[in-house]
From TrEMBL:
Gene3D superfamilies documented for this protein: Aldolase class I (3.20.20.70)
Family stated for the protein in its record: Belongs to the thiamine-phosphate synthase family.
UniProt cofactor note: Binds 1 Mg(2+) ion per subunit.
UniProt GO cellular component terms: cytoplasm
This protein's name: Thiamine-phosphate synthase
Length: 224
């Protein structure tokens, strides 16, 4: 299972985060739309719902993601990740550490880490329990109120860091990473030019009138 998940992660380019869409009541249709549009990873991140609602939403996400060979991710709650059989578990800098999450979830669940500066990115890159990491927010975003933008220079620095690691040891396995924060279709070329190969998006898809088209357009601009 870990090998299959890792192969999908290495090929992933478009990572979508969504809430449970309680205000619209269209979670299932939305999930089908973004998966059909080309989302490779989908994370449910909604701190406004209770555990039972989150479990139900994640079970739905897991079923839909499996139909499209996409990965589904749980944010913060390792207990819920274990209950729903998550493919991916994502932690921030002040959540469970990756090694703590690994002890709870075992070897098959992929673990991601948020990073906001080069020191954190370096630590994530060197951590054997981190399977991927995210860098940002590149631009300030209301989904992370109060967190300052890291800018495109951080993306460039991480791209150089990861390339140097592979140059130093061509046999080392690459660690996927995704730029995150305020990224949409007009800004995507800047992020790619800075060296990112994958991105995490929220509002660019969740607030789109046609999520399938929005996801498809983004995926079409990303590298194969």
């Amino acid at each position: 299972m870990r090998e299959t998940r890792t192969a999908r992660l290495l090929a992933a380019r478009l990572y979508v985060c969504t809430d449970a869409r309680r205000d619209r009541g269209d979670l299932e249709g939305f999930l089908h739309a973004v998966c059909a549009g080309g989302a490779d990873v989908i994370q449910l991140r909604d701190k406004s719902i209770d555990a039972d609602e989150e479990i139900a939403a994640l079970e739905l996400l897991g079923r839909v993601a499996a139909e499209y060979d996409a990965l589904f991710a749980v944010n913060d709650r390792a207990d819920i990740a274990a209950l729903v059989g998550a493919d991916v578990f994502h932690v921030g800098q002040h959540d469970l550490s990756p090694v703590q999450a690994r002890r709870l979830l075992g070897p098959d669940v992929l673990i991601g880490r948020s990073t906001h500066d080069l020191g954190q990115a370096t630590a994530a890159l060197e951590d054997p329990d981190v399977d991927y990491f995210c860098t940002g927010p590149v631009w300030a975003t209301p989904t992370k109120p109060g967190r300052p933008a890291t800018g495109l220079e951080f993306v460039r620095a991480v791209a150089e860091l990861t390339e140097a690691r592979l140059d130093a040891d061509p046999e080392v396995l690459p660690v996927p990473w995704f730029a995150i924060g305020g990224i949409d279709e007009p800004r995507l070329p800047q992020v790619l030019e800075a060296g990112a190969r994958g991105v995490v998006v929220v509002r660019a898809v969740t607030e789109a009138s046609d999520p399938r088209t929005a996801a498809g357009q983004l995926r079409g601009l990303l590298p194969a």
